[in-house]
Amino acid sequence: MNFEPSREEKMLEDELSRLLKDASYPDVSYRVLLSKRFDRELYRRMCTLGFVFPGDPILSVVSFRVFGRHLFISPALDCHVSLYLLSKREGPFKELTKAIVKGEKIISVAFDTENTAQGTWKGERLNVQCEGKFAFFLEDADGVIVDVETDGGVHPVLLLKGEYQHEKVDMMSDEPVYTLKCDTACTRERVLGDKDTLLDARCMIWLLSSAELLGIAEGAFSRAVKYSRERVQFGRPIGSFQAIRHMLADDYMNIRGCGFMVNESGYLCKRGLEVWKGASALAFMFAAEVSEQATKNCHQIHGAMGFTVEMPVHLYYKKAKSVAGRWFQGNELEKTVLHYWRGPLWIEEEKNGHED
Questions:
Q1: Is 99 a domain residue?
Q2: Is-contact 279 341, C-beta < 8 A?
Q3: pLDDT tens-digit profile of 233-254?
Q4: Are residues 205 and 299 in the same domain?
């Protein structure tokens, strides 16, 4: 089965890479990191051009891969998941979804299986209480979607600005992190689905995060290769030393393998096969390992220079830890893999007698 990029995917990747390069990413990422804000005008422009919401899972994977490679900081992931959940109740939120697609509105996401919000029904209104949940971009957000546990199970619930309080916290993240607190009541239409809908949203998060982690690994790897060719020691480039070659060869092999896993997950999602949920969880776990190892090796190849702010190497490591740490919910990932992942697609189709 061929998971090589199509012409449309290559065009999207080239155009988006060119746009971010013109905006000086990843060189400006450190300034953005210090400010704990993101370039909203650039984000809105990318939304207008269709780079953030291309309308296809495979193209979304391409976009997030480029975001990771260029260390682009934005609420794209939160808005992607919010758009998916809001589309389940398109009637009441039609204008909101249009605004999200244009980049005019931002809805954050605060999912945590170990710290769900608590909700109790009183007639047609749901009283929601939560404290200490982490969320991103709340200062710029127009609302947040939280996972609320009720007597009927866990549901994603939309809270609009003014219905919650937030406080910025200082964490090793390249994105602005806030603690969320709320004690409010909302109508039934704010409940965006059930536990199955919530699982689909988490799988979408894992799929897009795995693509972003893969891009981070690619960015760190390309810098390591470039530096190994430029840095001369003992009269020869350090890339000619066997120890350096081994590290780069391992990273290349892992990145290629991770790329196939991520692309396969997007392909399965596009076809609507249930197995995509397990594939996305598996791809995320592997991408988290690959990005961590690639950024560590990039540090080691750069030596002491890799730990200075003059070099952007430390940004790749921070970004990888931030993305993986935010969504690495071990038990939930493992359960999803065990429940939905039944082996490669071509084996499954062969059993069912299908041909591509």
A1: no
A2: yes
A3: 999 999 999 999 999 999 999 9
A4: yes
